[in-house]
What does this fold into?
Amino acid sequence: MSAKPYLKQFPDPQGYYGEFGGAALPPDLAAEMTKIERAYRTIGNSHDFIVRLRDIRTHFQGRPTPVYYAKRLTDAVGGARIYLKREDLNHTGAHKLNHCMGEALLASYLGKRKLIAETGAGQHGVALATAAAYFGLECEIYMGEVDIAKEHPNVIRMKMLGATVVPVGFGQRTLKEAVDAAFEAYMKDPETSMYAIGSVVGPHPFPMMVRDFQAVVGIEARDQFHAMTGHLPDHVVACVGGGSNAMGMFAGFIEDPVELWGVEPLGRGTGELGDHAASLRFGRPGLIHGFTTMTLADDDGNPAAVHSVASGLDYPGVGPEHAHLFAQGRTRLAGATDEDAIRAFYRLSRLEGIIPALESAHALAFAAELAESHPNDSILVNLSGRGDKDLDFVYTTYPPQDWA
Ligand SMILES: *Cc1c(COP(=O)(O)O)cnc(C)c1O
It folds into this structure.
């Protein structure tokens, strides 16, 4: 008898990946999650749903996105061959549309009228506002005031797309508070609205649904890489905020003898609580936003203040499946500081003509390190998004005359 494939084995029927995951929610919200889960398992697996999603991916999103051999980067680093999965070329400029179109398609099957979500860098908000426009749904996006100031272009894009952007002005005024505010709004009206989470986080079934919708990245990349080289990469590298781009990529290689590296944001590089957002490296098991995972908590057990130069990575938790895979030794942990990411940002821009998102720049920074120490290997990096949203911030805070 052959073992059940990993992706069929996890999560278990209660939404657990080992000790992580689950859905710890008030009864009315738990009932909504059960409804969404049932719908996902039936509708989401139906022929009609699968055909429609495939059609959307091809004709609206522009999939498959290419895998690109970064020759000048490889030569400059002087080690392993570096390949990029170009999720920056996915419509809206990042991997997030992959799960947003899936979630919005499910919402439309369920007869929902409104999509509600939080956003950090604004990428999830833009992707969801895009999906809402496509399906003719209302869209309400909660965003911390700090992020609104930092990610102005994405705020404008959401408004252009017809979404309502709700500023969140309490606490640190970033992603964590935006999640709290969005959840609260959803709890007021779970019948006609659907919460569309931005990563492989939150209560079951979201980590599973988002992983499954993102798996297209890893499945495509595996085929493409094999077609280009005749073998599989030795290493796969992705940045980990909540962990959706990493989980989508890892899903394609989970049964293969390939090293899977998750790169967390080490921020200012001190290792002090508040200076980073590396939940797997520095966190402890705990409960956050209705699920169990590795979390960064303060002395009172509340989600801690976190920092990363990349807004999309500053979350004091991580997807439960990443906590599980890391605890099992299936995935490996790496990190990059703000400064590492900035250097990688300029390096890719100058050497390859590709301006990466600051989030993706964390993966690129680590991939270069790995390449130097493994000269005979090949490395596939998930380039999760493009850097247009970060241009003003990088140009003023880390000007090219000092950093490029
Ligand atoms: C949001 C975002 C991330 C981080 O989210 P994950 O769920 O960890 O993938 C990474 N890269 C880009 C470009 C993003 O927009």
Q: What stands out?
A: The chain has a mean pLDDT of 96.
